Amino acid sequence: MFATRSALLSSSRLLSKKTVIPAFQIANKHTLVLVRHGESTWNLENKFTGWYDCPLSPKGIEEVTEAGKLVKAAGIAPDVAFTSLLKRAIRTCFEVLDQCGRVWIPVTKAWELNERHYGNLQGLDKQETVDKYGKDQVLIWRRSYDIPPPAVDKTSEHHPSNDPRYAGHDFPEEFTESLATTLDRVVPYFEENIVPELKKDQTVMVAAHGNSLRALVKHLDNIDEATILELNIPTGVPLVYELDENMKIIPNPKGMAPLRGEYLGDQDAIRARIEGVKNQTK
Amino acid sequence: MTSITSKTSELPFANLLKACMAPAAEGPYTLVLIRHGESEWNVENKFTGWYDCPLSPKGVEEVIQAGKLLKEEGIKPDVAYTSLLQRAIKTLNHVQEETGTMWIPVTRAWQLNERHYGGLTGLDKVKTVEKHGEEQVLIWRRSYDIPPPPATADSPYHPANDPKYANLNFPEEFTETLKTTLDRVLPYYESKIVPDLKDGKVVVIAAHGNSLRALVKHLDGIDEETIPNLNIPTGVPLIYQLDGNMNVIPSEQAIAPLRGHYLGDQDEVRARIEGVANQTKK
């Protein structure tokens, strides 16, 4: 009585629109937003976390809610998101998207975006490990480019073969990671899965971890091995990159060297926080 | 453990390999359906449809409880599907949180959305009864194929005005019935969800009253007269076991006409099934 037949949706009428790029939009910028997960309960307890799946602390949740507000205020609307298999990053991803009103976008979870695995240091208190092995050794393990901590074998609860989420992938009998090996799995993933989305004019958000993001920015900003080790990416602060149509970074004048992307938020507070992460084993 | 058949022509390790490799699962398969928890517009007694309102605080509690029930039952989803509407998305998040499955792949699909309520979206249910009469409203709410008046292209509730649906075409005037909802739910279920079940994955679908009605109509062979009045209570996990031919294995605890069973206190569930019927009574 009230509705004509044409108002009813029949599946044949629901066709996908072709993407039309307006003629005036010649030089497309592509936006990539990186967010390191907020403070986790193990950050709070100053433990080596790696692939251990601890949640965000209450402060961490606040941090990433704030991050979401900053992304929204910057007028950035992610179309697609990538995150790791670890809930502190997954939750970060969700909270940011919730603030932007975009929880409905596709989210892909990938182990390749996980934090660097800390081998048999996972679960150990950072300060106690220093007391045990000495500051220098621990600094090497934490901040060496390619010297990994001691490996875990399959008898360890921290070996990925003992976790069903990694069932689709074969891991070596003895497993540990360095920043170098983290990069070896992050960058190919980025190139194969994330770059194609950027090329399709999708604004991409990546919610990940300190070392997986180090790997990514090392690649994006051509940072050398010595510098990347000292680079601290503060938790819960959106880091925005614009790329041109050739997937080259457009350096942002507000970039804090060596990064060419821009952190969103109070720049002084961010600089102070970048210094803060260094102090966890003093 | 499947039986290992040996053939004389096979390599010596073939049987061992077969035992180690996961075989194509033969069933029974487990499908978990859950209707999102109480939403803010449920509380305000408005026709919601595709309007993207959040869960109410009570709704959040409901679905946390749902997750706990699944955990107690020992059901651990391997893959999840939900709609593009945050009340279902967040319902799923809570279920994942409680079952420790934050990391599983989640697909969000408009095909699992609630039935669109056309021009009734946003209207108060009781006032609509006062305006159009109880019978007419009952027809719109509970008819199988008589549509409510459509939403017009200038309405904020028309999907053309919502970025979630930017890559889809909709008629100028849009509305849905349970029938047209089924027409988009079932093909999606068959093409996307059934293959996951056949792979032996435990699938959870967090969706809506009418999209789930569409699904159970198909699963349980419920007729057109019965299905519009079947109430699926919010936030109560509904478990189906299917055999190798994707036919439902009737549960002894089923509440007819469903053949799946609800988790939780059965008396309370029955009472809640009755409760949904009363939303247009004054």
Order of helices and strands of chain B: HEHHEHEHHHEHEEH
Briefly note the CATH topology name of chain A.
Rossmann fold
The CATH superfamily name of chain B is Phosphoglycerate mutase-like
Name the overall outline of chain B: globular
What is the helical fraction of chain A, as a range of percent? 25-40%
Q: How large is the share of residues in beta strands of chain A? A: 5-15%
CATH-level-4 superfamily name of chain A: Phosphoglycerate mutase-like
Describe the strand arrangement of the main beta sheet of chain B, using strand numbers: 3-2-4-1-5-6
The total of beta strands of chain A comes to 6
CATH level 3 topology of chain B: Rossmann fold
Strand segment count of chain B: 6
Q: What would you call the structural class of chain B?
A: alpha/beta
The largest sheet of chain B, given as strand count, sense and whether it forms a barrel, is: 6 strands, mixed
List the strand order in the largest sheet of chain A: 3-2-4-1-5-6
Question: Can you offer a commentary on this structure?
Answer:
The complex is a heterodimer of chains A (282) and B (282). Chain A is built from nine helices and six strands, in the order βααβαβαααβααββα. By secondary structure, chain A is α/β, with parallel strands linked by helices. Chain A has one domain (24-281): Rossmann fold (3-Layer(aba) Sandwich). Chain A has a six-stranded mixed sheet with strand order 3-2-4-1-5-6. In chain A, β2 (80-83), α3 and β3 form a beta-alpha-beta unit. The longest helix of chain A is centred in the last third of the chain and has 21 residues, at 179-199. Chain A is globular and about 50 Å long. Chain A starts with 29 loop residues before the first strand and ends in a 6-residue tail after the last helix. Mean pLDDT of chain A is 89; it is low at 21-26. Chain B is α/β, with parallel strands linked by helices and 282 residues long. Chain B has one domain (29-62, 75-277): Phosphoglycerate mutase-like (Rossmann fold). In chain B, 36% of the residues lie in helices and 9% in strands. Chain B contains nine helices and six strands. A six-stranded mixed sheet of chain B has the order 3-2-4-1-5-6. In chain B, α5 (125-132) crosses α6. The longest helix of chain B is centred in the middle third of the chain and has 21 residues, at 178-198. Residues 1-10 of chain B have low confidence and may be disordered. The chains are: A alpha/beta (282), B alpha/beta (282). Chains A and B meet through α3 and β3 of A and α4, β3 and α7 of B.
